[in-house]
Amino acid sequence: MGKTIRLTMAQAVAHFLKAQMTVVDGRKVPIFAGVWAIFGHGNVAGMGEALYQVRGELPTLRAHNEQGMAHAAIAFAKASFRQRVMACTTSIGPGALNMVTAAGVAHVNRLPVLFLPGDVFANRIPDPVLQQIEDFGDGTVSVNDAFRCVSRYFDRITRPEQIIPALKRAMQVLTDPVDCGPVTLSLCQDVQAEAYDYPASLFAEKVWTQRRPRPDSGELAAAIETLRKAEKPLIIAGGGVLYSQATAELKAFAGLHGIPVAVTQAGKSALPDDHPLCMGSIGVTGTSAANAFAEEADVILAVGTRMQDFTTGSWALFKHDGLKMIGLNTVAFDAAKHDSQPLVADAREALTLLSEALGGWKAPASMEAAAKARKTAWMAAANSATAPTNAALPSDAQVIGAVQRTIGGENSVLVCAAGGLPGELHKLWQARKPGGYHMEYGFSCMGYEIAGALGVKLARPEADVVVMVGDGSYMMMNSELSTSIMLGRKLTVVVLDNRGYGCINRLQMGTGGANFNNLLKDAMIEAMPDIDFRAHAESMGAVAVKVSSIADLETAIQQSKGNDRTSVIVIDTDPLVTTQEGGHWWDVAVPEVSPRAEVNKAREAYVKARSAQSLG
């Protein structure tokens, strides 16, 4: 029998995590950058004591909100291109459930994070304990079962030795390009404190490297044949390009073969926006240039994207009758969507092999000429939308222009998540380098922005991390402003106050609905709130200012560069104005019958638009 070490189950978790390593830019580093922890009765005695023992090697970070700290962990992984991860531990009950929304964010976006929520007593003697939810028909259920549908791997640890296979399986999922996503190990609180003679080999250093599956020869040959026949090809670049670190290969492939590139929300920054073949965003929030190519494309090479409805215009964007789509993805589930020719492989490997096989083949010269003309026309429209203004209430686009001009350089990372800003930013923000655009739009989770930016700053401490957030999202979650100050991680936060949920109000109007319950002025409230976001941010330790014009906004951003801590700049904006150029129809079901004439008119337009959808 080999050497053993007697530890509690929680101590075993902590010692295992600190022994896991990876290689980033040729340098071996711990794969876990730290553990976010909010302690309660379900984890303070077990995981709390264990983390204290390894605090010099595995940092424990304190947050103010469980969902917020989980968003920070997820954003850290995204900003690290999935090469490094973080863990999160909470007590049972509300502490655990607060992380379920964040688990949904990680699951949708295929991002690794390790959740370690406390759980009820495995021995059940004290049941029901504080915060325990009892299922009247199933004694094995606890609130942590809510994680099952938003975890790529879930396990409940009811005996200390069960953690051995569970930890190994967790690492396999967190580092696998196909299964990658959230892992939940639900730790019964009594078992956290139970000791076991663990094999010393469990705590030996292990180095995890990125797996790069190469394509099947038959799928590769089929993709090459399809591309060679293309007359109007288009590349759609998704987040998988960034996770694969295939940006250089994408740039080389597009340039050598003369194929325009459109980017999804997750894929934006995979190719610099100023590249002549980068047509910008595609789909519902797309540029006129990208969507024009998408409508006429006869072959689409979709790289590292799950082709969701915003990308495809609810599958009504593509108009070519003979369209062939090649789905280049590590995940077969995504590669074969809508009858695509699957090319299941790592993006970097496959793009290299495709380019070698294509040799000197290029798309017709007319494609590059069209790309130049369409990009020029789009940039004129975008520059007009983002130009400075003296309007009393500027548009989101005009605020974006000010932020871009003052702090949108090579070293900046723009962070956003929900509301109207993602659409405007997808169209208008000029991403300079890979990872310079950080948008959580897979789950479009309000409240991600500030917490996510903190995670980005932890991953990229040298970057100017800029948050653009609406008043609605700010109100949902802002507590990690204080965390950023506690940790000495400076953010620049621009709060756009349109006094409600302006994006959904516009959607409500667009589907024929009456203005109702979105803008504060249209809600059934007794008193109109007048929230002083500047004073609120200042009370949490930020340097804060409210400005009244675009010119003042630019001045405030410039001045914020000299601040020694997180800066918050507030500006009132127009809730109704949005960039009209570009874009595409999106399938939002309109009621078949209504007493409102506006709804009936919108329904007629909706039925007509649906006729363009592909059912493949």
From TrEMBL:
GO terms for cellular component: acetolactate synthase complex. Transmembrane segments: none annotated. Its EC number is 3.7.1.22. The keyword Hydrolase applies. It is an enzyme of class 3 (hydrolase). Keywords: Hydrolase, Thiamine pyrophosphate. One of its GO terms (molecular function) is magnesium ion binding. Residues 220-353 form the Thiamine pyrophosphate enzyme central domain. InterPro entries: DHS-like_NAD/FAD-binding_dom, Myo_inos_IolD, THDP-binding, Thiamin_PyroP_enz_cen_dom, Thiamin_PyroP_enz_TPP-bd_dom, TPP-bd_CS, TPP_enz, TPP_enzyme_TPP-bd. It comes from the Bacteria. GO terms for biological process: inositol catabolic process; isoleucine biosynthetic process; L-valine biosynthetic process. Belongs to the TPP enzyme family. PANTHER family: 3D-(3,5_4)-TRIHYDROXYCYCLOHEXANE-1,2-DIONE HYDROLASE, THIAMINE PYROPHOSPHATE ENZYMES. This is 3D-(3,5/4)-trihydroxycyclohexane-1,2-dione acylhydrolase (Decyclizing). It comes from Shinella zoogloeoides (Crabtreella saccharophila). The lineage of its organism: Bacteria, Pseudomonadati, Pseudomonadota, Alphaproteobacteria, Hyphomicrobiales.
